Each structure stands twice: as C-alpha cells, then as structure tokens.
Structure of Protein arginine N-methyltransferase 7:
Amino acid sequence: MKTFCGRANPTTGAMEWLEEDEDYDYHQEIARSRYADMLHDKDRNTKYYQGIRAAVSRVKERGEKAIVLDIGTGTGLLSMMAASAGADFCYAIEVFRPMANAAVKIVEENGFCDKIKVINKHSTEVTVGPGGDMQCRANILVTELFDTELIGEGALPTYEHAHKYLVEEGCEAVPHRARVYVQLVESRRMWSWKKLFPVHVKAEDGEKIIVSPSEMENCPGVPSVCDIQLNQMPPSDFTVLSDVVTMFSVDFSKPVRSASTHYRVELEPVKSGKAQVVLSWWDIDMDPSGMINCTMAPYWVKPTSASQWRDHWMQCVYFLPREEPVLQGEKVSLTACRDAYSVWYKLQKARGKEENKADVHVESPVCRCQAHLLWNRPRLGELNDQNRTHQYIKALMTVLHTDSICLCISDGSLLPVLARYLGAKQFFKANHLEDKIKIIEARPELLTPSQLEDKKISVLLGEPFFTTSLLPWHNLYFWYARTAVATHLASNVTVLPQAASLHMMIVEFQDLWRIRSPCGTCEDFDVRIMDDMINNSLNFRESKEAEPHPLWEYPCKSLSDPQEVLTFDFRKTVPQQCLGTEGSVSLLRKGKSHGAVLWMEYHLTAGISVSTGLMDISNEKGNCEWNPHCKQAVYFFSSVIDSETLSDLPSAVTYAINFDPKTGEIAMDFKL
Ligand code: SAH
C-alpha cells in the first residue's frame, strides 16, 4: 500500500504530496505518538491498576469468571494489569497494526500469552461466539480511549457498540464514569485567540484604527477544540466568573448513547464581567464508589496536591460564540451541545424552564467569515500582540516614504494596512483598502511586470509568516520569494526584515522530556519493546529531526547562553551553496541537558528585531520566557547528560548545523 503524505515545501511555500510506503506513516505516528507519555503517567497507571484490581475482585466475589475486554490495548498494559489481578481471560483489541504487533510481543515477554489474546481489529469488527474473535461476551470492560475533550477519539460510539455486542449487561467498567466540568471566565489573552482586536496606528495625520469587518465580529469561529496546558496560564491572565460545575457525565458500565444531544446548567456568576470563554476538563472514577479518581483539574481547582504532568490529556478552551456580559448573582444558563466526537457551548440569560425547552438547538460553530480559516488561534494571538505590532510600526516608519511602492509577501498579514496608514503611496498584495492596496493572486515567481503596473518595488515587506510553516525556519520562504521577485525590485530596494538569524540554546525541560524518554518498566511490566519501537521509528531513515513545540506551555530552564548560529541576509538572494556552521556552546548551569531549542529572530531594520522564540531568561535559575504565539524547534538529544554539580559538567556541547538552500531544511547534529 502506498500513502501520500502532504508536506509544505519551504522553498516554494507550496504543498507537495509525496508518495511514501505504508511504513512511513507508521514511523511518523509511532515516533510522535503519545504512548511514551501515557506510560510515564504514573497517576493514570496506578489508578487504572487499582480500578482493575477492584473490578476483578468484585466479579470473583460473585463467583463468576472474570472475562476482560480491553478496547484499544496499545502496549497491552491494561490487559496485563487485569491478568495480574487474577482475570481469567483478556481480549485485547487494537486497531493500529504496529501497536497490535508490539502488544503481542510485550504480552509474550511478560509471560501472559495464555491469558491475553491480542486482536488486531477495530472493536466494531470484533465477533463473539464459537469460532469468533471472542468465545463469549466479557463481564469487565476496560478502555482508555479518551482525549483532552474526553470524546474526541470516538469513545462514545465505541462504548455504544461494545455494550450492544461485546459485553454482558451489568458488566463492570474501568473507568466506571467520567464527568466533564466547566468554568466560565473572562480572559483577554484567550479571547485574543478568537477575535481580532482593533489595532491602533499613530500616523502623522492622526490615530487610525484597523477594525475587523462585522462578519468576523459575529463569526462563531472554528469547531475544533482548543486544547492547552492550562496549568501554564498564570492567574493574572484570566478572571473566574463562575464556580466549577459538572456539565455532564457518562456511566461507562451502562449502555452508552453517542447520538447528538445537549446538556444545560444554570450558573450564578461569582463576579460581574464579560463571559468569553468556557474552560473545561474531566475526571474519571475508576470504581463505582468514586474512591479512585483521576482528574485533569487545573492548579487553581485543586491547589493542594501536586498534580501529575501529562501531555496526552490537557484542558479545553471553548470560545463562546459571542462575548456576553454577566452580572454577579444574576443567573445565566450554559448549554453544552455535543455530537459523537465534539462539544461546543452557548451562554444565555437564565429563563423559565418552559422557555428554555423551546430553544435547544445550538449550531456547531462553523467559521463564516473565512478569517478563522486563514488565522488559526496562535496567529490571531500574534496579530493581537500590541508590542509586536508596535515593533513593526516603528520599523515601517523608518523605511517608508510617501513615494514608496511596497510589495508584501506574507500570509494573512496586516502589514499592508499598517504601511498604508503610515503613508506608503502604493501597495501590492493585501486586503481591501480600496484602490490603495492591490491583492495579487500569483505565486511570486509568476509575478509579471504588468501586475505591478510596470513599477519597481522600493520596499519589500514580510513579517514573515506563512501558514504552511511547521518549523521556525520554514518562514525563510520569504527569502525564496524575495529571490523569485528580484527582477521587480528597484536597485535601492529596502527589504524588511533585512535579515533573520537562527538562535539555539541548550535546555533542561521540567516535563516535556517525558514524551521522548524510554520507560523501561511501567507498573512493573516490561515495556522495553515499546521503547525500542519508538527509537527505531525516530531513527527511521536517520530522520532524527527537530520538532515544533509551543514552549510557553512547556517550562524549561536554560543551561547555556542563547547563541546565534546562522544568519540569513534578505538583502541578498538565496545563495547556491549550503550555509553551515560548527561550534560549541558552553554549559553554564547544572541540570539535565535534554535537548536544544532553536528559533528565529527577524531583524526588521538595523535597530529593531522581533524574536519568535526566547523573550527573556528571568532569573539565575535560568527560567525561560518564550514567545506565546509561536512554536519553537526542539531537538531532543538521544542521551541526556545529567550534571548534579558544576564540576562534573561537560564544559560544552558541540554542534553542526547546516541550512540546505535546495530543500530549505536545516539539519543538525549535537555531541555531548
Ligand atoms: N490501553 C493503552 C493504550 C491507550 S491509547 C494504555 O492505556 O496505555 C488508545 C489505543 O486505542 C490506541 O492504540 C488506538 O489505536 C486504539 N483504539 C482506539 N479506538 C479503538 C477501537 N474502537 N478499537 C480498537 N482499537 C482502538
């Protein structure tokens, strides 16, 4: 079987479809999978184990055989727990073939071959009865099919089917139930991920304000869940408007219905404010009594116990279709609608019961204004960042003249509008602004002199930002575009940014290291086969690469000074030969060198730069503050050096970093 994998080519900015054999997909999936993170989630694992032991005991106490159905067995972990707890037999279902194969090996390695049957099928394809996949229905149903939104990975349809066809009535279920919690908040920061705030531009002829069109003001946005590490959101970035309430719950031991439905709760605001966002998370009770509880609650909800870090389950941010003012003590009614796979919210004034019944239909949010398709949430946050805008305005003021002819190359950029307000006479490529700005729908290399009205460009602008970029240096597409339009540029053209630089720093992560770190054993089960499999996938075609992560969500401390490693001069065209550098970076602090972080800085003009990565190192401990709108590149070292003391620090990490202009990619190698 062949698979087509879409990938943007950083030299052309275009999507290209590469034909890969099926192993390629698997390796990508395994290398970047959350399996390691789940196996490191001690809190989850111990609670599953407790819940499974309790369920097996209850069945045994009734004098029945314990027959377990484990849907989505992954490594086989939960089935091995059940078998150890005394289950008579386990059916371990796994749809993803490489994982099912791994589960077979792991089960064998741990000596459970006679107790666990791994079945490589989707649960809805599993047959029961003589000659079927399962001899009989199970009386214990164990699963871990949840995502941050609880139901996004299809838990509801899977449970619905399992109760109909695969388990006995009155079966035990681990987990036994889930509850979804909500809390209403006001947050300018989170709201800036959905709305475009007015941009104030102080021009010579007075202040101008860029406002978004009304279609965008009234647009409900996009339906996909916004899942983040809410624990990294400081209290100063939001105001709580309501208590935490249970929005809905699901009992997994009874038949489950996946059909679309809605739930409604009344909230009494604890504070007056603008309701903008619903924060949500869930917990699961592993047993009917609720004694074994695993919760995703953020820090301000359960401040006492140190919570487990995990990346496979985070918290959800739901944007209300509109901002609604609420008054302390004046009840409002919050409706959660869900289909089989997702949830969305609506807030209304609380009214009589009868009235409320009438109006149950709440549409799933669908972007009608197009802007939410062009600007994803971090990008909207970036455009709303006033400090950043100010830097661009300052830089534009130094390069623009009344007779400037500007060309802007960036996706969904406000630069043309800013430049226009700041006095540029003529502008190409951007939105609206009548005759002053002209949008050219052409790839840079296909631009014709007539599209530019036979004018030469005096100012070439870019943020740069392109929606297809995955890693920081993919925005170097600006350099390629600049090269492609070279013939249209005046001999004394000003290019803004005039240059970019790649920066690098060695860090110790507080937690992110877990997602790429081998587990060895998990709850005393040997899972090294899984570790090897992930490692093998990471090394597939020697493809060890940097990966993008939004580091504001993943605290780390710097172990070295930040170092500029490469520069890219946008005043010149892209060179033919590679840009390489080798060197070493000194380690200054003790700690575990988990990897290197890389990011780009753009030098708009000689004196004005913006960073898409490091903003600040805040104290002598080396805590880092990262640009909250951008993903940085993380290169995980294959082995970690751990220096407890400064004297056993290796003095430096050596590196070789190479930019290949033919591919637009950056290859790197580090030696500790
Ligand atoms: N049970 C393991 C792994 C959980 S990850 C653990 O707790 O560590 C969930 C796994 O379920 C994934 O491997 C996914 O491929 C699989 N899966 C999801 N829905 C499934 C279904 N309906 N049938 C079979 N496998 C499923």
Notes: Residues 42-61 form the longest helix (20 residues). The chain has four domains: 34-177, 178-366, 385-496, 499-510+555-671. Residues 38, 71-75, 77-78, 93-96, 99, 122-123, 144-145, 154, 158 surround S-adenosyl-L-homocysteine (CB under 6 Å). Residues 430-434 have pLDDT under 50 and may be disordered.
